[in-house]
Amino acid sequence: MKLTFDEMKQKLISGENVNLECKEAESSVPKSVYESYSAFANTNGGDIILGIKENKKESDPKKRFIIQGISNPVKQIEDFWNTINGNKVNTNILSDEDVYAISDADVILIVIHVPRASYNLKPVYIGENPYKGTYKRNNEGDYHATEHEVRAMIRDQNPNGNDSSIMEHYTMDDIDSPTLMAYRQIFKVTNPEHVWNGYEDKEFLRMLGGYSKDRTTGVEGLTMAGLLMFGKGLSIRERFDNILMDFRDESGLSGDMRWSDRVTYDGTWENNLFNFFTTVTRKLTVDLKKPFKLENETRIDDTPVHKAVREGFVNLIIHSDYMMDAGVLKIIKRDDGFEFTNPGVLKLPIDEIYMGGNSKARNPKMQTMLRMVGFGDNAGSGFPAILETWKSNGWVTPELIENTVLNQVTLSLSFEKTAIKNGDKKTAIKNGDKKMSEITESHVKDIIEFLSDNGEATTAEIAKVIGLKPSRTRELLGEIDEVKPIGENRNRRYTLKE
Fold first, then answer.
1. Structure pTM?
2. Do the beta carbons of residue 336 and residue 416 sit within 8 Å?
3. Taking CA atoms, which of 129, 344, 431, 456 is between 20 and 30 Å from 305?
């Protein structure tokens, strides 16, 4: 959706951010435009506006940006297209509708809308060397991507994922036998007639994708999936000392307690992924309600909520980038919900993930291993199943938070109740007993005042001001009659109705 001149002025009130960059460009396209093009494409997309001068000494956003306009918009647009289609950048991801002029009286500006690049096109870079010409974006502006960030983008181009690569010199001696035995017992119960049940461990792993041989080079050994899922802790730490597994139970705390239970490497267990998954899953779900239900005279203790929590854990494992320079698979259990954090940014835009039907796991072999023993839904259906479970229980929508600076993703599952309408009276329940009027009267007032002063803002910006979680803030924004959204999905902002 193209920006209007008035919408552009409203954006300027909030100043430059992770999705907005202004350039003076009075008579020619600045060279720095292409750095911003690379940065937006490699992060979350955004708009570059040509024809605006920035006075960096001015702290007031209303005075900091001066709309000057440009004298030759037709020529500048033509020059930009000639450059972007030449050898200045490695790929052009723009369509004709992404570059256009907007005007007010005799002032003309150029808007360049840069979408988020598809994972198979990243990195988008300037020149011929991706390690020197790749940029990313944060709230401070464009910055050179690190070598590790560029390598992560290149890895993500692989349509077969990352976890099928052979770990040379890692053999069956590096497998933890008790872990693999435990997995095979679950596999046999889940698939009692499966032919793989009769295979030796090495052949069984080969069929799962945990062991492989390169027919061209003759190199064979455990794959990344096989080593990380079933390997000995020491063998894993020798190869993946950059990755830490950490679970903290922060529920029911009192006094100076930081956590009531923790699972991390302490020498008491073989810290592979399957052990971590089975151990922590029990701790996550032990307190969840289990309504009495019989099926074929057998009590069923599993519920959609249990399955959704496990699905969140499965997503953490199959979407983690284990080749990053540093990262933590972090799970936090609190009284009001759970948080799952994995290293690596999203391969797909957030709005596509929420729609479901598509999945691009970094670790498809691990996904198969877990699915074969009943953990994880079919590709593309797992996250929508979590959304549906949370919706059916009246809880706020699960929030997927991508941090492109720390290169990590957090899934937040909260038990907080959503806002509902009861006649003309709005009510909301948090932990089952608080009314919305008790929670949000001052928040609504603060939101209206903030938007009145600033024109428009993102959910995250508003949440920071009023002191609520973005998921809760988004619920409130949808209930305030004076507020209207601008844009779609990840580019959505809010302003006051005229």
1. 0.80
2. yes
3. 344
d(CA 422, CA 201): 60
CB distance 269 to 233 below 8 Å: yes
C-beta separation of 365 from 208 below 8 A:
yes
Rounded CA-CA distance 426/440 in Å is 10
Residue with token string 């002191």: 467
CATH numbers and ranges of domains, the chain? 5-156 (3.30.950.30), 242-414 (3.30.565.60), 419-496 (1.10.10.10)
Contacts of 135 (CB under 8 A, 6+ apart): 35, 36, 38, 39, 42, 125, 126, 142, 143, 144, 145
Tens digit of each residue's pLDDT (9 = 90 or more) over 116-142: 999 999 999 999 999 999 999 998 899
Tokens of residue 121, six digits? 């096109």
pLDDT digits (tens, 9 = 90+) for 200-213: 999 999 999 999 99
What is the full DSSP assignment across 40-75? HHHTT-EEEEESEEE-TT---HHHHEEE---S-HHH
Q: Is residue 461 within a helix (H) or strand (E), and if so which, with residue range?
A: helix 459-466
How far apart CA 315 and CA 46 sit, in angstroms, is 28
Q: How far is CA 262 from CA 94, 248, 258, 284, in A?
A: 48, 5, 10, 11
